[in-house]
Each structure stands twice: as structure tokens, then as C-alpha cells.
Amino acid sequence: MKLGMVGLGRMGTGMTERLRLDGHEVETYDPNKDSTASSLMELAAQLEPPRVVWLMIPAGDPTESAFRELLGILAAGDTIVDGGNSNFRDSKRRNGEAAEHGIDFLDVGVSGGIWGLKEGYCLMAGGPDEPVGRLGPVLRSLAPEDGWAHVGPSGAGHFVKMVHNGIEYGLMESYGEGFEIMHASEYDLDLEQISGIWRYGSVVRSWLLELLHNAFGEHGGELADIAGYVEDSGEGRWAVSEAINENVPAPAMTLALYMRFVSRQDESFAAKVNAALRAQFGGHAVKTQ
Known about the structure:
The protein is an alpha/beta fold. It is 51% helix and 12% strand. The chain contains 13 helices and seven strands. It has a seven-stranded mixed β-sheet, with helices on both faces. Helix 4 (88-99) links the parallel strand 4 (79-82) and strand 5. Helix 8 (156-184) packs across helix 12. It is globular, with a radius of gyration of 23 Å. The relative contact order is 0.09.
């Protein structure tokens, strides 16, 4: 199958190569990378109807801008796929706007990171049945066996990916807390060794644990060359917001998100307030800078 890939970052590059290795013809556009096209217009001209353009670019303004431009370039029967981490409500809106032009729009949540080229990408597709079925060969090539599904109508793909990332936050925070307890203990524990044996037979074994074991091997048990500053892509925030909207308690996911905020503080003002209050009501000593 032939398609156009917009965005050649870590994900887009790996996906393009995986598709080409499986026999697909992929034209590309990225203003910052060597590409087959120098613009979205040129990319569309390199494709034959019905054309498929897959977006692997940051959510928000970059995706919205590319989507708007493509609406003016593509024709009825063509398909736009958003494989980035867009908000599912934006995807539902874009589906409706694309339909007014006779263009199909699919939202496909993609997980796999830099390992996806070798291992395959987990794909969560949302949108109408017909275009999802038409893109079946592409989805099957990108995913490992049993690694993709048509999860529902428009927006469902990005909704499921949003929840997926919220769960990921909770898992990562739990591993982080557990290993910090061991790191702070009276025992001289080999954290690389422990993460290694937990990969086999343990009920907490997972791919994330395998990656943590790799990290200890690369950076040492102290992770001394890594700063404890943790960003978030936005999907954890959306997942917590949706939990609130649906009256679903999600304390682990919510706390994991807040702990990422904590990681970015050089010093907490709230902690200063607490220290000052303890001094005021209890006469407790205050550490000064």
C-alpha cells in the first residue's frame, strides 16, 4: 500500500522504516528532515487516489495546522490518519469537519516508542469501519501479532490511548517509589540485580521493568547522571480530567501525575508554608538557607 507520512521524529521515522521493510511505499514530509516532499502539497501530489496521509506530529497547533491545510489539498475519498497524542474531543471534531469534505478521518493511538521498529507498535484505531478496514494492511504491518484493534468510532482510538498513558503514569510511579524505598534502606541492595530477577516469574514483571533493568545497566544503580525531572505529554492530565467528568475515582493515576509536577520543583513553596506554620503553632525549629 502507498501512503504519506508527515513527521519523521522518533516514532514517525521508525514507523516509516517498518512499513517500507514490509513492502509498503511511503512518501514523507518533515520540514526538518530529509523527505521525499518539501510540502504537504507536494506530498499529496506524490500519492494516488484514494490517498492516505498519516500525521505523526505533536498534538495541538502542529496537528491542527496540518489538518486544516490537508482539508484544502485532499479530495473526497482520501483519508487523514492522526497517530499523534491528540485529545479525543479534537479528533471527534476533526472527523466531523473532514466528513463535510468527503474525507475520512481516523484517530489511531500509537504506543511502542523507540522500540516499535523492532517490536512493533500497539495501535488503537478509532473511526468508521470502511476506512479502518481499507488501512488494514498498514495497521497489520505496523503492529506485532494481535497488537492492533479497531476500538470504536471517532475519538475512541485517542480516548483509549489517553487511558493507556494514564495507567503508564501509575505503573512508573509505583516502580519509582518501590525502588526509592530499597535505595534508602539499611541494606546495600543491588537494584540492577533486583530489577533483573523480578523480570522472571514475579507478579510485577513487565516491559517497563525490563526497561528499568536496562537503565540501571546503562547508568548504574544510583542513576547518578539522570536528573529527577519528569515531563508529561498531557494525556495523563486528560485522563484525570475525564475521570472527574465521569465521577470515577482514579487516585493512583492522579497522584502519579502530581508527582511529576513535584519532580520539577527546585523547592516547594507549600513546604515552606508548612515549616513556617509548624514553627508558629508548635515552636518547631526551622531550617534556614
